[in-house]
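User:
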Amino acid sequence: MKNKKINITSLICILSIVPLMAKTSASSPTLEWIFHNLLFILFAVLMIGVLVTLYNVLMNYLNLEKKKYLIEAGKIVEEDTQIQNGSALSKLLEKAWGFVPKEEEESLVLDHDYDGIVELDNKMPPWWLALFYGTIVFAVVYLYIYEWSGNWSSTQQWEEEVAAGNEAKSDYLAKMASLVNEENVTLLTDPDDIAMGKKTFQSLCIACHGSAGEGNSIGPNLTDEYWLHGGGIRNVFKTITHGVPEKGMIAWNNQLEPAMIQKVASYILSLQGSNPPNAKDKQGQLWTEDENIN
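Assistant: Predicted structure:
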């Protein structure tokens, strides 16, 4: 029963580190991943050994106390050999921990006596020494791979991570751009965005609104404060998106992405007050605030 309890404890300890290693579940761990996480793996194994050892020592202590009680109560006469000898796992763990039997402690007593308190010349536990020497080996291998071999550098790793981050950022922005609508659209002021909006305007809109937005016989002047279908970024965005079919303006949402329509609308609003030559007369109503969508 005691061995089963120890095995169950070991299993629980091992399973407890599985979530921390979940990032490798999609593929088998590579040698590079193992090396990067070697200290964590060693620490996890060490903690498992410590927990199992402490559990085993505690159970042995409780069993010994139980045995003493039964002997004093007269319920048993001979000692329980299983408790006395312990399991093979118990002996292995005690050896790894470096325990010295109590009856042999006399040989470890140093010639130091402080008011009846004596000092034992205990050696460092074997597991501690193994871990210490292991860190030395790890350091040598680490220096060779990451400093002397020339196959890797922190600069290279940083550049790769920055490139991956920029790619993820671009994907995110592209995804978010498709979510722009007349309810959440905002006025863009970045010169690059305005330049892209101008380029699209000049390739698609000048036939009806003129090269400078001055308007012509077909479309209205876009540089003054008077609007036929409402001013402000939300109304202009809506007009470009859905068009004005009754007046011959097509809906551009089938040809332009929402993000591009936002850039075109922002460029159009940047023309306010530019007073281009041959500007068409005022049409519509004076617009002072972008409070509602018409």
